[in-house]
Structures are given as structure tokens and as C-alpha cells.
């Protein structure tokens, strides 16, 4: 199963990038994982929020195929414990999912078309995190999920 974290805009904080790279190195032993960056829109100060979401949504939807599993990281999504999240990853693998996209939207969230395309929504917390931080949280949780699936001692209950 190929897992992609699809994000709008690059991470500019070098400290966050170093931490993400650490988990990318660890994840390569468990799964085919990558982070795909959609460049931020240019000249978006003249756009209304809904126009910006629509344009970002078009760019997101161009990246995924009809057969791909699309999961939005969204404040309105379902919250999981780490063990429950690992179960979700494992179920998708056992179901033969070939490509799974976890998507982090732009600063204003997702367009209605992206919500309609999504197979599910996951929330990491009721709190709001920066779009840069959620990338780090995601790669750590994905690594944790694989160590839980493999029965390795990284996660403690």
C-alpha cells in the first residue's frame, strides 16, 4: 500500500523539517510513504476564502484517482486513539487498498468538492494546529501505527 501525505504549501520551519525527516527515515522500513506538496497559490490576497478553497481543491483533486482512498485531516473528522488509528491503517492494507492519500488543506480548509470526494475525515484533536505542525504529528502517528501493527515496543499502553 502506497501512503501519501498530500499537503498545500511547503514547511518553512527547518526544525520541523528535521523532525519530519527523522520519521521519514524510520517509515521506509514499514511502508511506501511520501509527502507530496502542492505549491501555495500565488496572488491569493485578492481572493475570498471560498475562492481560495476552490482553487486549492482543484489542485488537490488533480492528484488523486477515482480508485484512491482519500482521507482528510480535518477538525470535523473522527478522533482515534493511536491503537485505533493503527487498526485503520491495517484494515486498509488488508482490504488491498493500493493508494491512500491523507490530505492537509490550506489555511481555510477544504472546498465542498474535496469534502464530497473524501472517503473519510480524521481529526487529530479538537484543538487547531498549524498546517506545518500537523505534518509532523501525522508522520509520528503513522510511524507509531506501524510499530503497533508489528508489535514493536515504541508505543506503551
Q: What features would you describe in this structure?
A:
The protein is of the alpha/beta class and 157 residues long. It has a single domain (2-149), classed as Alpha/beta knot, CATH 3.40.1280. It has helices at 14-27, 49-63, 82-94, 112-117, 131-149, and strands at residues 2-8, 32-38, 69-79, 99-104, 120-123. Helix 1 (14-27) links the parallel strand 1 and strand 2. The radius of gyration is 15 Å and the shape is globular. The mean pLDDT is 94.
List the helices and strands and how they pair.
Layout: E1 2-8, H1 14-27, E2 32-38, H2 49-63, E3 69-79, H3 82-94, E4 99-104, H4 112-117, E5 120-123, H5 131-149
Helix pairs in contact: 1-5, 3-5
Amino acid at each position: 500500500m502506497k501512503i501519501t501525505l498530500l499537503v498545500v504549501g511547503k514547511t518553512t520551519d527547518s526544525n520541523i523539517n528535521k523532525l519530519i525527516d527523522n520519521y521519514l527515515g524510520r517509515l521506509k522500513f514499514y511502508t511506501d510513504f511520501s509527502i507530496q506538496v502542492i505549491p501555495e497559490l500565488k496572488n491569493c490576497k485578492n481572493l475570498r476564502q471560498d475562492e481560495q478553497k476552490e482553487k486549492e481543491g482543484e489542485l488537490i483533486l488533480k492528484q488523486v484517482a477515482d480508485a484512491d482512498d482519500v482521507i482528510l485531516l480535518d477538525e470535523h473528522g473522527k478522533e482515534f486513539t493511536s491503537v485505533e488509528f493503527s487498526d485503520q491503517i491495517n484494515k486498509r492494507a488488508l482490504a488491498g487498498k493500493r493508494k491512500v492519500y491523507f490530505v492537509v488543506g490550506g489555511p481555510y480548509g477544504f472546498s465542498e468538492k474535496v469534502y464530497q470526494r473524501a472517503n473519510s475525515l480524521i481529526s487529530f484533536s479538537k484543538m487547531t494546529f498549524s498546517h506545518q505542525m500537523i505534518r509532523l504529528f501525522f508522520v509520528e502517528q503513522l510511524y507509531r501505527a506501524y510499530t503497533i501493527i508489528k508489535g514493536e515496543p515504541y508505543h506503551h499502553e
